[in-house]
Amino acid sequence: MSELESLHFQSVSFTGMAAGARLIVLGAVHGNEICGTWAIRRAISEIESGQLALVAGRVTFVPVANPLAYLRQQRMGDRNLNRNLVPTGNPVEFEDRIANWLCPLLAQHDALLDLHSFHTAGQPFVMLGPQDNQGSLEPFARSAEETALALRLGVRRFVDGWLDTYATGVARRLAAGVSAREADVSYGVGTTEFMRAQGGIALTLECGQHDDPAAPDVAWRAILNTLAHLQLIAAPAPQAVADTEALRLYEVIDRAHADDRFARAWSSFDPVRAGELIGTRHNGAAVAADSDGYIVFPNPNAQPGQEWFYLAKPSKRV
Prior knowledge:
alpha/beta; CATH 2.40.50.100; eleven-stranded mixed β-sheet; three-stranded antiparallel β-sheet; 14 strands; globular
């Protein structure tokens, strides 16, 4: 049996006796980000044992969204599942086959909680969607509901501006004559963007560093709080977090060459000052911060032509 023939897709659903919201929770969209998988399996076990009672609505758990990447213990199988997420009649990469299964499943739900972790050290944070708008990039009308849920996941840091910042990077790639799929705005569409396009609300929770022993508990608490906030379980409504910190992404810098190097080992949300050296290109050119702010998603292992790091500024969004 080949590697692919040994794989399967799994979702586990529970439906309460009363009407209510339809929630879907994803783990291991990236195969080396398994804190969500652990937390989801714990939730399934506790519902099956009766320790946790679903009283209304429906919850669907996907412990491992990308089984090939999970089997290989790496971020992706053939490509990043959280990019260009759309069903296709001509699946080529394994992630295309996942999309053909996962996208219709997402569309059956009202709310998505997508559980992730990140490369470098740092505290957990929530990725928010756009504010209400009627624009062409990501029109949305449920930001108040989405933000209310975000405030109850149990973490205090919030980040927004993903897709429009990605679109800025796409424009730069196109201007430079890049023809790779990273030069297509639709390549920035992942699970949450797809879910919002179906009329739902959607949050990505980055639960901590991949190997942080606290990350599975962060994911578990978020599941429990989401179930309570949406009134799917008989539990007190979770309180909104206080002392919040909100940041907005405004710039993405790509890694141009395999020999591009960071000036130091950056962690997400490390502060940077205007003019501070962030990295050096393979030809010796300096890459510096254009203003005071923060570095987000630094990836020292990024492939040439892909996102190397993002820059963010404080926001009053939350």
